[in-house]
Amino acid sequence: MRVAYGNRGLVGVLTPQANTTVEPEFAVLFPPGVAHITARMVSHSPDMHTRLVDYFSRLPDWAAQFANAPIEALAIACTGASYLVGAEHEQELVESLSERIGVPVVTSGQAVGAALQVLQARRIALVSPYPRALTEASVTYWESYGVEIARIVEVGAVAASFHPIYAMAADDAQTALATLEDEPNLDAVVMLGTGMPTLQPILTTPEIAGAPVFSCMLATAWRTVLAVDRLPPSRENLVAWINTPEWAPRL
Predict the structure, then answer these.
(1) pLDDT for the residue 167
(2) What gap in Å lies between CA 133 and CA 135, rounded to an integer?
(3) Is there a domain that residue 3 lies in?
(4) Are 208 and 235 within 8 A, CB to CB?
(5) Which of 21, 37, 149, 219 has the most CB atoms around its CB within 10 Å?
(6) CB neighbours of 146 closer than 8 A, spacing ≥ 6?
(7) Same domain for 156 and 86
(8) Whole-prediction pTM value?
(9) Torsion angle, CA of 56/62/64/65, rounded to 10 degrees?
(10) Maximum Cα–Cα distance across the chain
(11) What domain count does the chain have?
């Protein structure tokens, strides 16, 4: 069943409670005819790691907020939780939730993993907005996809802000990305997190020495639209999102 503003498909989106980037970037990334509705994952813990685990511990509750809305895919736009629960448990959660709600479920972590697989990436660089401990957890997660982390560039947190990641500007990500220009033999550059704005940096620098540059948000949108269209991921359809972005005029 289609809705008025989603004649190609309606997507349900779960996002962390204070994230200010997911909805604007999905509004840019999703093509005409793909609409989205959003629900917030909530935790009252003051500790970031505990909050992230809380988000994934109650996925059926968060998804239930969509009630009987005719979503054709569910995107979970939170990468940090994937790192902390691990790829194996994440897959179990995805399979269980997908069976429960009857539509494909896409996590940001698995979307990036799919992108790395279709690129046949073996040696990658990360641009990370996270605190050091979460960056280290991400390394273990990405290595489970069979890649080597050649280099990590950390983006400095914004002091005295409502959130150290969500308050970052695209220029912060662009500056960090520029430091990788002398890194040889990369197969991909991944800009981490669903909270750091990354679309302008990708548009400005779609590749570094031939290595595609993409973000968790771009990968999630790409994989989710493929799920709506019932198409398999491929290098060709991923590179089209990066190098000849249909979303550029909307940005």
Answers:
(1) 54
(2) 5
(3) no
(4) no
(5) 219
(6) 122
(7) no
(8) 0.94
(9) -170
(10) 51
(11) 2
Nearest-angstrom CA–CA distance, 226 and 171: 30
Give how far Cα 134 sits from Cα of 83, 86, 140, 195, Å: 8, 12, 10, 14
Residue 148 shares a structural domain with residue 163 = yes
Q: How far apart are CA 129 and CA 124, in angstroms?
A: 16
> What is the identity of the amino acid at 235?
R
Asked if 117 and 210 sit in the same domain, the reply is yes
> Burial level of 16, CB count in 10 A (0-12/13-18/19+)?
buried
pLDDT score of 170: 59
Q: What is the pLDDT of residues 215-232, one digit of tens each?
A: 999 999 999 999 999 999
Question: Domain with 206 in it: what CATH number?
Answer: 3.40.50.12500
Residues 82 and 93 in one domain: yes
Q: Which residue has the higher pLDDT, 29 or 49?
A: 29
Q: Reading across the β-sheet that carries 148-154, which strands appear in turn?
A: 148-154, 123-128, 188-191, 211-215, 207-208
